[in-house]
Amino acid sequence: MVKSSSAARRRGVRADVPVTKEAIVEAAFRLIDERGLEGFSMRSLAAELGVFPATLYWHVGDRGALLGLVEYEWIKQVRMPDPDTDWRTWALEVARGYRAHAFRHPNIARLATLERPQNTGSLRLPDALIGKLVELGFDDDLVDAFNALMGAIRGFVIVELAPRPESIGPDEIEAEIRGLDATEYPNIAANVDRLADRALSLRWSNPTDRPLDDSFDFLVNVLLDGLEARRRA
Amino acid sequence: MVKSSSAARRRGVRADVPVTKEAIVEAAFRLIDERGLEGFSMRSLAAELGVFPATLYWHVGDRGALLGLVEYEWIKQVRMPDPDTDWRTWALEVARGYRAHAFRHPNIARLATLERPQNTGSLRLPDALIGKLVELGFDDDLVDAFNALMGAIRGFVIVELAPRPESIGPDEIEAEIRGLDATEYPNIAANVDRLADRALSLRWSNPTDRPLDDSFDFLVNVLLDGLEARRRA
DNA sequence: ACCTGAACACCGTTCAAGT
DNA sequence: ACCTGAACACCGTTCAAGT
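Output (structure tokens, whole complex):
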């Protein structure tokens, strides 16, 4: 609130650095990326840009619209593999590429999966995948094949990226998991060494610190096997 | 703010209906279920119970802790199938049961998948599933099989339940999807009748109004086939 | 066209004070 | 032990008014 701060301009005077829609989206992207969606607010973003909150509303609309734009920015950055490679490696690369990009910006990826995209510009990946599935011979069950693949891949990634609860420390979670009652949870207890901090629901580290690469590849390969088998039949 | 309201009690006077931890969790569950997480606040919950906000903090801790309890309540309600049925039908029933319960309380299910559970009491399903996978013969790749199944099922459901953006109406989305540029999205355009309002990313209805039952069954069956095949090999 | 400044109606959380 | 009442530090959003 100091008069000399860049946020204190006179009425109607324009910002030294022009506040464009693009600049706002970029700054919002960076803020959410660094601090998470909880650490993001319209007011903090405005302060960051040296501008009053109302200015944001003029440029991008309300909070929901802005989050939609951030989401869109993220989806556009997902890399598509060479379309001329064979189906199997293409599909595996798409899946891995999607997940890799989610790990680059976990907070934004979570946001983007949770609400449906508000714009149809993010349909490059779906379109390409549908094309490949049609080539493979799917027709009546095209929707199911597409949904299974898309839902499993996007879903796995978002479940994998679910953050730890803030209220409890990792050590406490570890202690709880390692000390689980063997009569109540016999199978977990019997395989604790294999599962600890690796199996979903039994992790205590940050998801980005302990990526489940092998499990993801396992899932995708099982799905691709299954889809091919169903076409041969 | 009327004096005669049940919310206006004198200092230190107890509520006519005692405010227990259980009552708070139950009321929170109902509020989120009906109005969604966005329509829920500590203050509105307190008002609903005829009590001051600070009372909630005394009984259940902060907002995060309360959401954890609501989550836990939901997970406990997931029905487990008869453990003595054969592996294949057991697994299918678990998956369907999980999803069915998510559809009963979509707002809570979304909440429960987004953050990791804060309590280890919700491990009945994981434990049972691990037991079945061990029976099937998984050992070194037990984690991967478990994660693939769990991640795909929970993930599919949460992606399926992603709500429409509030800012845009269903009609507008439908129009946009049906009018997609055929040169930019040739494969979607060519199969629009099969995909419209059924394929992920191409829906405009509410998720609960257009459940993707077939796609979910397709996914689960492909996964179960794949797991069994990997064990025979 | 673009931005300010203030206002409105909310939040979550804490804490001394009451019974 | 349980709850009030008020306070603190925030929110998102709107809108008349300025340049």
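Residues 9-15, 18-19, 51-52, 54-55, 58-59 of chain B lie near DNA strand D (CB under 10 Å from a C1').
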